[in-house]
Design brief:
This protein is an alpha+beta fold. It contains 23 helices and 29 strands. The strands form six sheets. It has an eight-stranded mixed sheet, sandwiched between helices.
Length: about 900
């Protein structure tokens, strides 16, 4: 028998095998990513938000008092005034008493006017209860870059304006009550889906403009009625309306402020919650993208001085009095990402503020798209911020844009910098570095005295005079406080801050001024201060401590028993510029308060250290992060390690979320004091929790801002960043994590990429790209079949047509790469920053591969469903035929035949009776 080998047949077999392997690999990849992504998305995560409760009443307000001459659009929408309280009220009498500050709430896509209830109820409680209790933590201020943009005038104006804003904050917080309440209005937009059509947005904008005019008219009517009755305290007539918008309602608020029919100066403050500003989340219709583009262009030109073609001045910027604040929900807002809520390129930093909920003062949470309306932590902080806008003298919002923006910055932004810059201070020293001041003496002694007094505790908080017998002298670079013992600890800056350890950090749960005070001394002896100028004497820096969210405090089993270390609630950091010129640093701790009949407070702690930022710096390369998905990367910290660990990730956690685990290895305790049944890791963990404070992580990302994680022992760290998108910046592919760990304990830190987290982030961020690629794959398959039909060739199957898409044709590659290359060339030649080209291309290829695999899975699933349906049909048909042949059921056949004839007769009779058209 002779065997004949055909090369063409062998090549055909090998080609088919390669094709099957290629398709199988794509399918396996798509299934793995899809299953991992679904597991990550379906994993329950605690929200952390507290509910807001209210007693709502909605008072309808007709847009036209006469109820005539209104369009159909005005007829289907409505305007309501919110009232908080369970008692019934007279609507007309209530409208007659309106004298507060008008605020208009605009719901978003499919939203209801009743969503105003949380904000309105909490603002009413805030007005009745007064401002929040004043603390002595460091408050947020303008960043150095914002200071440079705001103040380009003389040095004297810089100091005066800065201290005017600071005095404004202190005077407002010093008042026991707010000067006026907020009157909340809301527009009823019938729950229309404004995120799907630009024409709906235009209708909403027109109605909001008319609602603003109607609100001001209602106040005017109420004011005139009270004036006619000669009532006292008629109040002041509001000149503007504050707009608060959720989701697409925030964009409608911006669109209404530039509407040509809007009265001049009636909108000066806009607050948006999870609102897209850069572009619509999903542009399903061209009208939506065109409306966004038109509004954003109008806003960009609205902050520019109006000039003629020859350069002559016409008028000031049209939006020079408008301040916009945009609040994003963070990583858990799947509908509107943080990047879309940014005001960059639309509103200048002199008039706009973008902040995430994770970095907001007293909030520190990420929340869903709808939760941002009722999350009590955020609603309370926003309500107090808006009440702080009201001027004590006029009872209406401040007319100065700088004051209004400063109020929002102080009340919403935390004292922790929104961008990682550990080596630089965020306070007044920045001004001398970035502003055009030639010499330090130009600030004058008055400016230095103000800087010195800025961080002092008030004179009303008095401690007993410290004596040298109660002083402690610290010899090491680390100082520890484990109780409120009423002692003062001295640290020699000159000796202990040597060898490059010129930074100082203090982590504590003691309240500044009431529990701990920090001072810098030029000399220890007080006699040596007689001949020292006032500006060089002892400086208190207590109020430089920044507040951080603390986890739950440990519970005491019985009074006086030793508990776990309390989580830190504040961080103080001093750089070389702040320590320069001083010899000693003192940490004074207040004596423990005693209350009769109550157990002593939980364990108090404070840990401080002089350190060098270079010692605790760990950088994870892209290769190590990719390998960590298979084998985790471990970092071991021995005892006496730096208190501050700086972890730098070369790939953003927005692409690769990192699972971070901290395991305590030891804490300097040699002998066990626990029962004999407790051994091993459990014993170490129980003992070390008595000595070491819980770790805290501060995460910075260039797009999503600040994210704080208290009590970090095991968590998946994810930031709301999307560096692989085309509009991202070049430096958005990195994330910095600052870990505060107790230097008395040794740790094993395990870092690994979370596959489920990465898959879920991939599906969320690039879901629109995947859907687009999937549609393209289907169209390419249909195109291949249509081409075969045209050439009278055998029709290829859908699977074979999809397989051909995996082999990128040369013309398609040129069309795909050509425009990108031209854009990159223009970006290099121009001033526009280059996007992350490499990550964009890689993610696009991955999305295209996943789309092919998803379409193959969908095709195979459809074929399987059809096959199972056919099998079920054949099975039942065969069983029916077998059963029919086994039994004689002639009467059933007769019944079916007669019923068929009767039905046909009825059908034809009804058809004949129909009149001809």
């Amino acid at each position: 028998m002779q065997l004949i080998f055909h090369p063409s047949r062998g090549e055909e077999i090998m080609g088919g095998l390669k094709t099957n392997c290629r398709v199988s690999a794509v399918v396996i990849f798509a299934v793995c990513v899809g299953v991992a992504g679904l597991l990550g998305l379906l994993t329950p995560i605690p929200n952390g938000c507290n509910m807001t409760y209210m007693y709502p009443t909605y008072i309808p307000i007709p847009l036209h008092p006469s109820n005539i001459n209104f369009s159909s659009a005005e007829g289907k929408y409505g305007l309501y005034l919110y009232h908080e309280g369970w008692k019934k009220i007279d609507y007309d009498l209530h409208l007659l008493k309106l004298s507060g500050v008008p605020v208009l709430f605009i719901p978003g896509n499919g939203g209801s006017y009743k969503q105003v209830r949380s904000l309105a109820a909490e603002s009413d409680r805030a007005f009745q209860g007064g401002p929040l209790e004043h603390t002595f933590y460091q408050e947020a201020s303008f960043t150095p870059e914002e200071v440079v943009r705001r103040y380009s005038s003389t040095k004297r104006n810089i100091l005066e304006e800065d201290w005017e804003i600071r005095n404004l904050f202190s005077s407002v917080k010093g008042t026991p009550q707010y000067s006026n309440r907020l009157d909340w209005f809301a527009v009823d937009l019938e729950g229309e889906h404004s995120a799907l059509d630009g024409r709906i947005l235009e209708e909403h904008t027109e109605y909001v403009v008319k609602a603003i005019h109607r609100i001001l008219d209602v106040y005017k009517e109420s004011f005139n009625a009270r004036s006619k009755d000669n009532r006292e305290n008629v109040g002041t007539l509001p000149r503007s309306v504050i707009l608060v918008g959720h989701s697409m309602g925030g964009f409608v608020a911006r669109a209404a402020s530039i509407h040509p029919h809007l009265r001049k100066g009636v909108v000066e403050t806009i607050l948006t919650l999870s609102s897209p500003h850069q572009s619509p989340p999903v542009a399903l219709q061209p009208s939506l993208g065109h409306f966004f583009s038109r509004v954003n262009k109008a806003w960009q030109s609205g902050y520019q001085i109006q000039r003629t073609r020859s350069g002559h001045w016409i008028s000031d910027p049209l939006l020079s009095d408008v301040v916009v604040v945009s609040i994003s929900g963070g990583i858990r807002d799947y509908q509107v990402r943080s990047k879309l809520t940014s005001l960059d390129g639309i509103v200048p930093s002199t008039h706009g503020l973008t902040i995430g909920a994770t970095g907001m003062r007293n909030v520190w949470l990420s929340m869903e798209h709808q939760s941002i309306l009722w999350c009590n932590q955020l609603v309370v902080q926003v309500s107090h911020a808006m009440l702080h806008l009201i001027d004590q003298s006029t009872g209406q919002p401040f007319s100065s844009t700088q004051k209004r923006l400063a109020v929002f910055v102080s009340n919403l932004r935390s004292g922790i910098p929104q961008s990682f810059d550990w080596m630089r201070s965020v306070q007044f020293q920045h001004y001398a570095e970035h502003l055009p001041i030639e010499k330090e003496e130009d600030l004058g002694s008055l400016g230095k005295l103000r800087i010195k007094d800025q961080f002092c505790c008030p004179k009303s908080i008095q401690w007993e005079d410290d004596s040298h017998e109660r002083d402690l002298y610290i010899e090491s670079t680390t100082v520890t406080v484990l109780a409120m013992d009423g002692r003062r600890r001295w640290m020699d800056i000159k000796r202990q801050a040597s060898d490059g350890r010129d930074h100082f950090v203090l982590v504590t749960n003691l309240v500044p001024c009431f529990g701990v005070r920090i001072h810098l001394w030029p000399e220890k002896s007080r006699l040596a201060l007689r001949d020292v100028p006032a500006v060089k004497r002892v400086m208190e820096v207590t109020s430089k401590m920044v507040h951080i969210p603390a986890g739950p405090a440990p519970r005491q089993i019985e009074p006086g028993s030793q508990t776990e270390q309390a989580p830190p609630s504040a961080v103080l950091r001093l750089g070389p510029d702040e320590l320069r010129g001083f010899r000693f640093l003192t940490i004074s701790v207040a004596p423990r308060p005693t209350v009769s009949g109550r157990p002593p407070p939980a364990a108090s702690m404070a840990v401080g250290q002089f350190f060098s930022p270079r010692e605790g710096k760990v950088k994870f390369s892209p290769q190590s992060l990719l390998l960590s998905s298979y084998k985790q990367q471990d970092v071991t910290l021995q005892e006496n390690h730096p208190l501050v660990m700086n972890f730098s990730f070369s790939i953003s956690m927005g692409i690769f979320p990192v699972a971070l685990n901290l395991k305590t290895l030891g804490c300097g305790i040699k002998d066990s004091l626990l029962a004999t049944e407790k051994t091993g890791d459990e014993e170490h963990s129980s003992l070390c929790k008595l000595r070491c404070f819980p770790p805290v992580a501060l995460v910075w990302d260039t797009e999503s801002g600040l994210y704080v994680i208290p009590n970090l022992y095991s968590d998946t760290v994810t930031v709301d960043s999307s560096p692989a998108l085309w509009g991202s910046r070049q430096d958005s592919g990195k994330t910095t994590l600052l870990l505060l760990v107790d230097p008395h304990c040794s740790y094993k830190i395990s870092v690994s990429v979370s596959l489920t987290g990465a898959a879920s982030r991939f599906l969320l961020l690039h879901g629109s790209q995947i859907i687009g690629f999937s549609m393209a794959v289907l169209f390419f398959s249909l195109m291949q079949q249509a081409r075969a039909w045209e050439l009278d060739l055998p029709l290829p199957s859908v699977l074979s047509a999809i397989e051909s898409n995996l082999r990128l044709p040369l013309p398609f590659g040129f069309l795909a790469v050509g425009p990108l290359a031209v854009y990159m060339l223009l970006a290099l030649l121009g001033t526009e920053p280059c996007p992350p080209f490499a990550s964009f291309v890689i993610v696009s290829i991955v999305s295209y591969t996943f789309a092919n695999g998803a379409v193959v899975v969908l095709t195979l699933s459809t074929q399987l469903i059809f096959y199972l349906t056919a099998c079920i049909q054949v099975f039942f048909k065969q069983r029916w035929q077998a059963w029919e042949g086994r039994f004689h059921m002639s009467f059933i056949h007769q019944f079916i035949d007669r019923f068929s004839v009767f039905s046909s007769f009825q059908f034809f009779g009804a058809f004949i009776s129909q009149p001809s058209s």
